[in-house]
Design brief:
Helix content is 40%, strand content 12%. By secondary structure, it is of the alpha+beta class. The chain has a single domain, classed as Glycoside hydrolase 144 (GH144) (Glycosyltransferase, Alpha/alpha barrel).
Length: 420
Amino acid sequence: MKTTASVILAFSIAFSPVCGAFAASGKTVDPDDAFVDKIEKDTFRYFLDMADPDTGLVADNSSSGAPCSIAATGFGLAALCIAHSRGWITYDEAYDRVFRTLKTFKNTLKSEHGFYYHFVDMKTGRRVWNSELSSIDSAIFFAGALFAAQYFKGTEVERLANYLYLRADWPWMMNGSKLLCMGWTPEKGFLGAYWDWYNEGLIAYILAIGSPTYPVPVESWRAWRKPVGEYGGYKVVYSYFGSLFTYQFSQAWVDFRGINDNGINYWDNSVNAINANRKFCLDNASLHEGYGEDGWGLTAGDGPGGYKGYGARPAEHIVQDGTINPYGIAASMPFCPDISKRSLKNLYGKYGDRIYGRYGFKAGFNLDKRWWSNNYIGIDQGITVLMIENYRTGMIWDYFMRNRCVRSWMDSCGFEVEVP
């Protein structure tokens, strides 16, 4: 059955444990799974310990002296709401932390045309590392703020969140083109790179097209490339590097399950990308000791040589050296819960505290090089918490899809929406 964008938002659907299948609304999936609860709760702790108590800004990673990542802060806003819903923190603690963070963005952080710098000082909010004014990191922050606006609807949090989102000048970020630019610096102006492929940039286009104050033309949604490839029998609209996070970040917020974009269903596409990623690791298990039944989920993350965009076919340019970043598996849980949970359990059982600690799964490991990361990365922790909660209850989709900008994006694009 097909319906309009406004009708689909009345439906809230949670998952069954079968990959890609649906279950009835409002029912927590596998409520007795203590291991899943442990991962989610431990991972959330990052956003308590690694947030500045005064500014609310969240550290990019757990190393000493790390600056704030505004994307990690956006994920943290949603994580705080999730924590309250699960009884891990009180309403007042969640509200106060979210409110304090939004006030910091309004009153302290420097912005240009409503966008924020990628990395800022945890206490002063000043730009660090000569980082760019980032369209995608700002978008992830806005997504977290808009989620919190719905969770704390009718409060000052909602007013502040909407204020911050509504002042973002998306057409300015297009720099006269049909596409959103990745960023801008005061030294060199707009970057040379644009969001011109299928990737995590979908959330930026959704917020830009749906903006009631500074919308971009709907043609921008059709302007970025949607290349199709196949690996292991799985057909995928793929991202250039094939990192799994590109199939996960936007879908942490937007429920794509019933949306038909001219024959493309991005939910099914992510399921296929995950299965292709795992098949790629199985096919290359003889090359890397860590690859196999439970060693998959190639994505951007910490590795022996630093942070890299690991990926798998059918992408055109992939990086692999045997590194596994467990969050890639954890964030696949809504799409393929059985293989995600089984792999995480087996990895935890095999390697224990070498890959798991106070904040859940660590940033990465490489068996070929006997390398184990002792770090945690904020955006990894954020996507893990959100996707596990989406698997369990669909909570993030439920609240985020209530935002007017999402309805506007769907209606503007004229999507066919199928309701099961």
